[in-house]
Amino acid sequence: MFLGSSAVMNRLKVVSRHLSPSRAEFQSCSARAPADPQDVVIVHGLRTPIGRAKRGSFKDTTPDELLSAVMTAVLRDVGLTPNKLGDVCVGNVLQPGAGAVMARIAQFISGFPETVPVYTVNRQCSSGLQALFNIAGGIRNGFYDLGLACGVESMSLRSVGNPGDLSSRLMDSEKARECLIPMGITSENVAERYGVTREKQDSFACSSQHKAAQAQKQGLFEKEIVPVTTKFVDENGAERTITVTKDDGIRPGTTLAGLAKLRPAFKEDGSTTAGNASQVSDGAAAVLMGRRFAVEALGLPVLGILRAGAVVGVPPDVMGIGPAYAIPAALEKAGLSVNDVDVFEINEAFASQVVYCVEKLGIPMEKVNPNGGAIALGHPLGCTGARQVVTLLNELKRRGRRAYGVVSMCIGTGMGAAAVIEYPGP
Amino acid sequence: MKWFRFPARHGYAVEISPFLPNILACATAQYYGIAGCGTLLVLEQRESDIVLMRSFDWNDGLFDVTWSENNEHVLVTGAGDGSLQIWDTANPQGPIRVLKEHTQEVYAVDWSQTRTENLVVSGSWDHTAKVWDPERPQSVCTLQGHEGVIYSTIWSPHIPACFASASGDGTLRVWDVKAGSCRLAIPAHKAEILSCDWCKYDQNVLATGAVDCSVCVWDLRNVRQPVAQMLGHSYAVRRIKFSPFYKTVLASCSYDFTVRVWDFSRSPPLLDTMEHHSEFVCGLDFDLHIPNQMVDCSWDETVKIYTPPGLTAMQPSSA
C-alpha cells in the first residue's frame, strides 16, 4: 500500500523519539519528574482587573493602590504573613525611576513591615516577567527562600514620552538611533519586512477579542482577578467609590469588517491600527515565589515551577520579533521543543509581531493566548509579564494535567524575553 | 546459534507456537516499517537450521504477531494500516478475517491464555486498546484512557479478562475488560514505555521496558516504586518478555542492537548480553518447550535462535 506522507513522517517521528527522547516528549497525566527541593516554584498569583487608560475604571487610581491590592490579596489567599518575604521586586516602566518610592509606599499601605525590602525593575514591556526572574535569581543565590514578584502600571497617570538625557552621539550609531523609533513604526517595519498583511493582523486581533470575551463570559478570569475598590470621578466631576471586578477593554462585538474600517494609526499607508495593537491600560499583578523545600515546609501549594528563562537582543527597528528568538532560547534551556508546550502566552503588543513570531516558530495558533491577549485585555506595560504568568497558570490548572507553558513578549529598543513554566498537575 | 535471513524485510516480532515446539512466526515490514508492505513468516526450526514453511503478505507493515491458544494453525497480526489479520497456516490465499477498527498503527496483539476465554487484545497508536472475539467481525469493547500511543498490550496469564498496556504517555495500565475500565494507572517511567509483560509465576508482578533505557519490575500491591530497576541498555528498550521457566528471569531487546537476560532477584541482575545483531532488535520470545532457548528478530533481516550461556546454570522455578 502506498502510505500517505503524513503517516510516513509520523512513523519516522515515533522511531526518532525512541532514539533521542526529549525530556517532555511523553505526555503523561500522572507521571511526574521527581521534585527537586531547590526548584524555584510559584505558589500563587493574582492580578487586578485591567482598566482602559484615561477613560476606564482606574483612570483616577494611583499605581501604589493597584499594587497594594494584589500584594495584599496574594498573601491573604495563602495565609502567609508578609514578614516571611525575603524581597519584593516590582516591574514598572512609566513612574519616575520606575516607581522606587511608589513601590515602598505600596508596601506600607499594604501593612507589610519595614523589615521587608522592596525594589523596582524596568525592562520595559517585560518588567513584570523580569521581576519574576529577579526574585528567582535571589532565591537561587541563596539570599532568601520566599519573594514576591509584581508588576504595575498606570498609563492613565503617566505616558510614554521623554526618553531622558541622551548623548548627541546617538546619531552616529544606526542602532542607537533606531532605539528612538516609535513602537507603532516598529510594528509597521515588522509587517512590511516579513509580509504580515493587514488581513492577518485584523483576523488575529478579532480572534483575541472573541477569545477574551468568551473567557470573560464563562467567568474564567474570576479566579485570577482580585476585585479593587477605588475612587472614580464621573463625567459630572463627582467622586464615587467603585469596586472593579472585570477587565474593561474587551469588546465582544468586534468584527473583521469593523476592524477593517479603522485607519492606520502610525503611518498613512500602514497596517497597524488601534484595533490590531495592544490597548493602553492600567493594572497590577503579583506572584508569590519560593524555593520548593521552604514552600513545602510552610505547607504552601506549588502551582508552577519556573523551568527556564531567557532574554535576547534583536534589532531595535523590528523589536517585535523578540519572542521569535527568546522562546527558542528559553525552550532550549529547558530541554523542550515547541511541541512540548501546551499554552503560549505571547504579549500582543501588535498583531503584526505576534503573527510573525507564531508563524516563524510554527506554533499551532490554538496554543497561543487561549483567553485573548493585550489587544483585548490591554497592556499595562510594567504589569504585563506578571499578568501573563497568572493567566497562564490558571489556564493550565483548568486543563487539569501536568503541562508546560511559555510566557513571552517583545521589548522596546529591541529585545525579547521568555519563560518556561511547568504546571505540575493537580 | 541457528538463524534465518529474510531479505528486504525487517523483523518486528517473533513468537514460538504454543502447540508445535519447532514452529515460530515472525512479523516483518518492508523499508524498516516506515513505509511499504509487510510479511508474516512461519518458520520451522530443524536440527541445524531454520527453514521457511509459509509466508503471508499484507499491504502494510506487520508490527506484532500472536499464536492462537486454541488452534495450532491460527495466528493474528497487527498492521500499520490499523487492521488485525487472522491467518490460517492451512490457507495460503490470505487472511481468513481482517478486523479493521483502529484508526492508526496496531503495534500490539495478544491472544488470551486463560482457559475460559478466547480473546485477542490489540493496542494502537490511536491511544485505544480493543478486545476481540476472533469469531466475530466487530470488537467486543474499546478501552480508552491512555493519553499517548499504545505500544504493548498483554493479557494476564492468571486473571481472566485482565490485561496490561504500556504507552507513550509514560504509564503502565491494568484493565478490567468485564468492567470496561482501567483498574490501575502506574506512572512507571518518565519516558515512553514501549513494552510490558506479566510474570508467569506471580499474578501481581509485571515488568516494563522504556525509552529511558531501563527495565522496571512492578508489584501491583505497591506501585509507588519498582521492585527492581535494571540498567544497562544504552538505547530504548523495545520489548521485554518474562521467562516461562524462572520466576525472576526476563529478557529485553533494544535499539542498542543487544538482547539482555536479567534475574531481578540478583545483584547485579544482568545474566547475559547478546550482541549478535547489527540493527535494532524488536522481537523476542522464550521457547516454551525447550528451557533456556530464546529467539529474537531484528531490523537486520534475521531471526536468531540461541541459548544464552548465562541461563544454563539456572534452576527452573516450580509453578
UniProtKB/TrEMBL annotation, chain A:
Active-site residues per Swiss-Prot or TrEMBL entry: C125 (acyl-thioester intermediate), H379 (proton acceptor), C410 (proton acceptor)
Residue span(s) of domain Thiolase N-terminal: 40-289
Keywords: Acyltransferase, Fatty acid metabolism, Lipid metabolism, Peroxisome, Transferase, Transit peptide
InterPro entries: Thiolase, Thiolase-like, Thiolase-like_sf_Thiolase, Thiolase_acyl_enz_int_AS, Thiolase_AS, Thiolase_C, Thiolase_CS, Thiolase_N
Thiolase C-terminal domain sequence ranges: 302-422
Localisation per UniProt entry: Peroxisome
The reaction(s) this protein catalyses: tetradecanoyl-CoA + acetyl-CoA = 3-oxohexadecanoyl-CoA + CoA; 3-oxohexadecanedioyl-CoA + CoA = tetradecanedioyl-CoA + acetyl-CoA; hexanoyl-CoA + acetyl-CoA = 3-oxooctanoyl-CoA + CoA; 3-oxo-(6Z,9Z,12Z,15Z,18Z,21Z)-tetracosahexaenoyl-CoA + CoA = (4Z,7Z,10Z,13Z,16Z,19Z)-docosahexaenoyl-CoA + acetyl-CoA
Alphabetized PROSITE patterns for the sequence: THIOLASE_1, THIOLASE_2, THIOLASE_3
Record-linked SUPFAM superfamilies: Thiolase-like (SSF53901)
Pathway entry: Lipid metabolism; peroxisomal fatty acid beta-oxidation
GO terms for MF: acetyl-CoA C-acetyltransferase activity; acetyl-CoA C-myristoyltransferase activity
UniProt key word Acyltransferase: yes
Entry GO CC: peroxisome
Coiled-coil residue windows: none
NCBIfam families according to UniProt: AcCoA-C-Actrans
Stated name of the protein: Uncharacterized protein
Lineage: Eukaryota, Metazoa, Chordata, Craniata, Vertebrata
UniProtKB/TrEMBL annotation, chain B:
Compartments where located: Cytoplasm, Cytosol; Peroxisome matrix
Family: Belongs to the WD repeat peroxin-7 family.
Species assigned in the record: Hemibagrus wyckioides
UniProt xrefs under Pfam families: WD40
GO CC term, one of those recorded: peroxisomal matrix
A Gene Ontology BP annotation from the UniProt entry: protein import into peroxisome matrix
Keywords, alphabetical: Cytoplasm, Peroxisome, Protein transport, Repeat, Transport, WD repeat
Extent of the signal sequence: none
WD repeats: 65-88, 99-142, 143-185, 186-228, 230-272
Protein's name in the database: Peroxin-7
Coarse class of the protein's main subcellular location: cytoplasm
GO molecular function, one term: peroxisome matrix targeting signal-2 binding
